[in-house]
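Researcher: Here's a chain I'd like modeled. Treat it as a single chain, no partners, no ligands.
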Amino acid sequence: MVNESINVEIELKVIKVVINCRHGGFCLSPQAMLELHRRGCSGIRAKRVEDVFPGNGETFALDFDEQMHRWRSYLSSGEPLDPFQIYFSSDERFVLECPKIVRDDRDLVAVVEQLGTRANGPLSTLEIVEIPEDVVWEIAECDGLEHVAEAHRRWYGKGE
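Model: Modeled as a single isolated chain. Structure tokens:
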């Protein structure tokens, strides 16, 4: 009797998830936001400038002028932005936000792969983590430093 071992290659299917690997929090660079907006990514919310800065009141006009000045300075110089800077669309008609972008969004993953470190926002270091496709996952964080965790059930007390 001949003992033959059978080599079987099993292909593990994975999904890619974008996380922040630095204290501070998940944040995209203006370049990444503009590219995601250009691609029509559903995780990017575009609000009309006049809805964010309503009316012509002095306070709002000053805020708008200051934000637009900072934005245009960034575009011309490439200097790092203030973490609280507002990002505008290419035509400056919209304010761009990504409040709840899905971290395994194909466009997000593609933009982070394409831009590399240029996708990092002011307080973030973005990385792509590969996890098995069949895992129910969530992003856990502590002070902005994130990791992908397998989701499980939790019960909390009522607290005060």
